Structures
1.
Amino acid sequence: MFRLDQDLTLTIDGPAASGKSATAKLLARELGLSVLNTGAMYRCATALAIEHNCDVEHEKRLVELVRAARMHFDWKKDPPEIIAEGRSFMQRITDRDVSALVSRYSDCVPLRQLLVGMQRDVRDAHPRLVSEGRDQGSVVFPDADVKFYLHATPMKRAERRRDQLLLEKGLDINAQQLAEEIAQRDERDRKKPYGALTKPEGAFVVDSTELSLAQVVDMMKMVVVSKARRASGPAGSEDGHGTA
Ligand code: DC
């Protein structure tokens, strides 16, 4: 049983560019939760590897590098800022060289094990948490109170990513080209041997293709609130799963 005013873990899994980060940020704000952006951790590890010339094959060195960098979040910032080697990596992690390589570095199993451990430590320190990333409900927090699987068509995700790149970096990239890259990435991500993209058991599926960010967040909030109500109601019945 869970209550909205007590420890609460929500997870948002889903493919690349499905809007997990933006959704998690708003949902966290609405429900008074901390937010964990796990993609930022893989991106930061990749940025460190680039700076230290550490190839993806050098798994042991990569893990040592990330450990030594003392990667953590500054929770005083909203959203929390990713820090390593004592400096912020917030700007660096969205650069194109990092985006191009992060998928390969995130295949490194020892790195995943290190970051999964760090993510669980974050939940221990922030027990009211919404955590987003490809494997959060499936691998990292299978015991989450409510799990979501957020998706949209590759074309819709490409259009959103194009708009974001234009706004944040001034880059004008063809949406069709981005859609093809996204579809290929989905395919690769589903076949990964560890931390593969999958719908976690018991997750509420949210298709955001035709929905605005605000509508997605409202829908998720409704799911959480109604699940909490059911859990604390006289019958206490929790059927849990479904499609939103
Ligand atoms: O969500 P994002 O684009 O910031 O994620 C960056 C990369 O890290 C992407 O290739 C997916 C990967 N990732 C992962 O493998 N596991 C996570 N929990 C989060 C991200």
Note: DSSP finds nine helices and eight strands in the chain.
2.
Amino acid sequence: MRKIETLIFIIFFTFFYSCNKTDNLIDSSFQYADVQLRYMLNHIAEYKDDLSNNRILPRSLDVNGNIYMVSPSDWCSGFFPGVLWYMYEYSHDNFWKVKAKEYAEKLAGQRFNKGTHDLGFMIYCSYGNGYRLSPSEEYKTVLLDAAESLSFRYDSIIGCIKSWDLKDSPWQYPVIIDNMMNLELLFEASKLSGNKKYREIAISHADKTMENHFRPDYSSYHVVDYDTITGAAISKNTHQGYSDESVWARGQAWGLYGYTMCYRETGDIRYLKFAEKIADFILNQKNMPDDLIPYWDLLAPNIPNEPRDVSAAAIIASALYELSEYSQEYSARYKNVADTIIKNLSNNYRPKTGTMYGFLLHSSTGHWPRKSEVNVPIIYAEYYYLEALLRRKALG
Ligand code: GLY
């Protein structure tokens, strides 16, 4: 073969070989998930401990390695049904659809819960995926009721949805970066109902958050407090990070995912550019480990001896796959980074089959300052991991 032909052969071979490797990774990860999640379902079916408290959905493992179950009103309740819907989306196996419906419908009553900004996580991950994969009037009604309940928490002077109603709170009107994720439910509700109100609330919240939550380098604060009379931002703090000025890993991930989603829903180029800036900040962190699974806070004091947060990595990977579809300049970079993350998660952060109650990934960190859910499997890591795998598969 001439030199040029050899070169073309090598390029094509490398391309097909790497596509094939990614397909294998996705398939083998779902095969693993199939085994682990059936194991988890068996455990949950036998779980009788706290039924009086309605703890019927898996969330994480506690310090003793026991499963931590939560009620439908917990902010994490929607992720397990969402995981089951993703299993159905991948496999088209009716077994997963039946289970997904069973667990999603345990959240039906939450549609009227006006006490949490996390209703978007709860209802969109469960009913939103359910409606997407198996549309019905019943699911649509739940989504619309939930959007109405969530919009009850919006204040037009501040222009944001309130995050927490804490007793003895140091804040008047706390808004956390995580809340960007709840906007997806509102965008969906406007599409389903034709009522622009939900979408307008989502856009206002995203714009205010852009204005007040971000530092000049595009890292984000966790909590911004607003004055309820003037609507002005009055303090910028953390709750789950190491310090007010530190870089709480999952918060950066929520922002990246949130603005990517806002671009999808609005086509507003400001959101795309903003998501690119956040990605740039995250990917250029000097404290980011080589395997791209971040420490729980990228300015935590004892790096490299700090717990990782696998959930942040999974959210970042899922967001980057989506962003790679929109970004003109950085598409290949985002896809490569996300590929590295899912490869490392699948190869190095998996419990052995038949252990850890069937969770799919270890080493997430929920709330380090409270020493709660540190270095354990947490259900939202699994949700965004499976979502990332599906997004990768769709990219081809
Ligand atoms: N929304 C709470 C968290 O990310 O831990």
Note: The CA atoms of residues 31 and 260 lie 29 Å apart.
3.
Amino acid sequence: MSITKIRIGIPFNTEAVVEQLPAKDVSSLKYFELDETEDGLFFRYEDVTEKTAVYGLGEQVRGINKKGWIYGTDCTDDPDHDESRKSLYGAHNFIIIDDPDRAIRFGVFFDYPGKVTYDLGYTDSTELKISVSDKNIDIYIIDTDKLINIVSDFRHLIGKSYLPPMWGLGYGQSRWGYKNEADILEVVKKYKDAGIPLDMIYLDIDYMERYKDFTLNEEAFPDLEKLSDDLKAQGIRLIPIIDAAVKVEDGYDVYEEGVQKGYFCTDKDGKPFVGAVWPGKSCFPDFLQPKVRDWFGKKYKFLIEKGIEGFWNDMNEPAIFYSENRLKQVIERTIELSKTNIGLEEFFELTGMYATLNGNKQYYEDFFHNVDGKPVRHDKVHNLFGMNMTRAAGEAIKEMYPDREFLFFSRASSIGAHRYGGIWMGDNSSWWSHILLNLQMLPSLNMCGYLFTGADIGGFGQNTTEDLVLRWIALGVFVPLFRNHSCMGTREQELYRFNSISTFRNFITIRKAMIPYMYELLRSSNEEGRMMYIPLAFAYEDDERARSVEDQLMMGDDIMLAPVYTQNAKGRYVYLPEDMLCVRMKSVDEYLIYELPRGSHYVECALDEIIFFVRSEETIDRMLGKA
Ligand code: MIG
């Protein structure tokens, strides 16, 4: 292994890395030309050819090979995961550049807590340009022979990943809209009536009293402990959400304690910064402070004492709908404009002001963290917020319950948070293209340390369809975080609502049978720093055709996934880099196996089948726990 650490300036300690290496100065920088201007640092990798590929960046839109687009690592609450996006909820600053024409391949980690821009041949197709508007950064360059080994060296550098309890690999049902105990019991009953196994039900923000963290809406959930116990007796666990921001409300203990102890981020005058999120006006815990993490993390006890064994952390980019200040400005300007004869210009100013209230990046310049007694403006360390919220719970729960395992995942993240929890892929849509996006994010996230991850199956936003859910579940059975989740107002997508009940029952039963196999794969991938989902370009480095496959993955060494992700398809084309067995599986007892030679094939796959490929039949038995 060869990792070179280069330090420029005096970087902020992000705590992404666990291995402490001696730092070299910038004269040891290789592969990149470095331009230093008053705007910051620009790293250029030149003479990019058609064959050059770029991998990594974790949670982002577009393909496994990231070349050709411009990305930014800037944790953002953005529910439109379309191709135009540059950043989603996570900031994962690790890339691999594979340049076969010059026999160069290396990994590089830009260890920086603010935004990094990756212009990967977008502006100029012969150049990759990475820029940071700062002059303080640590850079790690990893030189190794194989792509897979670059990843394992990097994973060694950043430390082992969070692993869920084995039961966390079960099937979970979620929906933003379950309001009360009766709604939850109805879901349980309908799954039971349909004979579809269910392992978890997620509680979204409505279980809280007016969206206040660590409170219960007692009217809706009069006895959460009993509900949790009753469900657990049936093998079903409740997984509540925790939001990042704390409601401003006199008499609310979390708010009052936070104010008293100075635990919230502050505005320029040192007063708690106020932004609006679901609870209304809210304050933002300063998760960068160890004592704040300890304080907030220990609050999870409130739910753990009621029998809860898993959580999902939301809104921790942090999402801000509006700030008090800006809302005031916008309203004042509106009043001003209302006195004029509103022309087009004023009209667009008005609509623009309102359209940019929610999630305006300006808010990140309006509040401060306290780092070792010094104020640090939020935007400078923006990508550490979500990570440290995850860490707060991860560390405090471990301290309180050292011998217990919890299911735990978050929305926002950066490299480092992978040690404390998993992530889900956020607010995707019920679109066919998002099945493919789900597949493509898996290896990219694995490269950045995230093993426990998955997307909202069936799609979060927009109305789903039965065939979409069938195809998505057929991929989901192979993915660790296996959760059906949707947004209120969209078509309901619990599996019992569709006609294909027996197919869903078969698919979920296949998954249940696979849990020990999957868990072992997760565990060993973590132990050895391997990816659980491997692009064909990594698994078959010397195969020119495999290098460009964007819709198939190896799951471990023995299974190749090739899900159907297009509407009304009766099957799909698959590229086999070697002779393989094609498996078309209807249920744990009913599957068809046939040999296919290396090359491209059209493989049929009906809506009630799951297809995958193996080298030997023995793998199927192991996968289903029959061997
Ligand atoms: O602003 O809690 O990504 O999974 O259902 C939306 C409500 C807030 C966003 C999460 C989504 C969740 C929703 N939340």
Note: The longest strand covers residues 104-111.
